[in-house]
Specification:
The protein has a single domain, classed as Carbonic anhydrase (Beta-carbonic Anhydrase, Chain A, 3-Layer(aba) Sandwich), CATH 3.40.1050. Helices cover 50% and strands 15% of the residues. It has helices at residues 5-21, 25-31, 49-52, 75-87, 102-108, 116-129, 131-135, 140-160, 163-170, 199-206, and strands at 37-42, 60-65, 92-98, 176-183, 188-191. Strand 4 (176-183) and strand 5 (188-191) form a beta hairpin. The termini are far apart. The structure holds zinc ion. The site of zinc ion (ZN) has 7 residues, from helix 5.
């Protein structure tokens, strides 16, 4: 009970399997990481970054929180973005939301959830920005799906507004910010087609 033996057993087995298929794997990875991607996704256990895009350790830098939110006062998330952009020089930042997100669902409900309501406030703001469009949809199911998507689009915009990303673009660094959404029921990702790769593209979206 205290040492969660099954997890340690699984870890040993995994390590053995990796070493069998690629004997130098861990030695090479221990020296450095060189990921091309930063993933900002939901903490939901059903949306594990590496597995759903089939990448190995070392290939993607990951930050996850409830409902994949990027807030300008969140030093944790901003530090991840800064390290990824300035030190690791990732070429792509991917915000990946998912349909059926419990955080988005909770933000749409009227009742109290305690402390987490402070975090969900950010999603309620997204709802408020797009209230007309969301209210015009035929039902709650459509509103829920649409808010899952709109939340991703807002977070892409929030990332593009950070001093970190703007500084990288001004310095001519190659960096694209993408918005994706994942479908829990078939394991398929959809590109929301909101990719921004420089300051001109960003200002075009603000018009
Ligand atoms: Zn979620």
């Amino acid at each position: 009970m205290r040492i969660l033996k099954t997890l340690f057993d699984k870890n040993r087995q995994w390590s053995e399997n990796v070493k069998k298929s690629d004997p130098g794997f861990f030695e090479a990875l221990a020296k450095q990481q060189n990921p091309e991607y930063l993933w900002i996704g939901c903490s939901d256990s059903r949306v594990p970054a590496n597995q759903i895009i089939d990448l190995q350790p070392g290939e993607i830098f990951v930050h996850r929180n409830i409902a994949n939110v990027v807030v300008h006062t969140d030093l944790n998330c901003l530090s991840v973005i800064q390290y990824a952009v300035e030190v690791l020089k990732v070429k792509h930042i991917i915000v990946c939301g998912h349909y059926g997100c419990g955080g988005i669902m909770a933000a749409m409900e009227d009742h109290d959830h305690g402390l987490i309501d402070n975090w969900l406030r950010n999603i309620r703001d997204v709802y408020r920005f797009h209230e007309q469009r969301l209210q015009a949809l035929p039902g709650d199911r459509e509103r829920f799906d649409a808010l899952c998507e709109l939340n991703v689009v807002e977070q892409v915009n929030n990332i593009c507004q950070t001093t970190i990303v703007q500084g990288a673009w001004r310095a001519g660094q190659e960096l694209a910010v993408h918005g994706w959404i994942y479908n829990l029921s078939d394991g398929i990702l959809k590109d929301l087609d909101v990719c921004i790769t420089n300051l001109d593209e960003l200002s075009a979206t603000q018009r």
